Amino acid sequence: MTNKKTEVKRIFNSIAYRYDLLNHLLSFGLDFYWRKKALKLSSLNTNSKLLDVACGTGDFAIAANKLGVINIIGADLSKKMLELFIKKSIWISGRTIQMVAENIPLKNTSVTNITVAFGVRNFFNISDGFKSFYRILTSGGKVTILEFRMPGNKFLKELYKFYFKNILPVIGGIISGDKEAYRYLPASVEEFDEKINLEELLRENGFKDINSYNLTFGTIQIIIAAK
Description:
Layout: H1 2-15, H2 19-26, H3 30-42, E1 49-53, H4 59-66, E2 71-76, H5 79-88, E3 94-98, E4 111-117, H6 126-136, E5 137-148, H7 154-176, H8 181-195, H9 198-204, E6 208-215, E7 220-226
Parallel strand pairs: 1-2, 1-4, 2-3, 4-5
Antiparallel strand pairs: 5-7, 6-7
């Protein structure tokens, strides 16, 4: 865990200043649509109390605020990401916490919603992270996970893998200045997809009413579960 924590923190601190640009560029701008779709499926409103885990620079939180959510906490392991979150989200009523998902420093039943965009695969222990989620959610509260996945279609899967392994690392490395980061990120997607069943882990940790949705030819998944 210590080695992964150190490496993940280093990677995201390193690429923080180019993170937004690369997200939009490498997703062809679809990341805006993915976040908006996930939030609408979650039925957030002005009464929601949102914890955005692995918040990065705050795009998910900003999208939630546009839907009327005011009470937002951004949480991330990377200090540099949180600094950018604060700059971009200064008008949101909330705060930031530097933390890992497995140890959330919030009281029991203190938030109504948790969102995680492209961050679950970087958790050190996903099951422990989901235990923390369950503890801090109110009864009926929801966790919304937005994550990459490998498409089921064989042709699309090979095309996706080619893009992730050959094109994304080159572009990401040139723009961010950290080639290693953009080798780690695509590799983590394939490994995650092969080994992790998010719905099963959520169920094992007490969640119910689990619904999943596939977007963009099955390359993106949204999973929403209730306490």
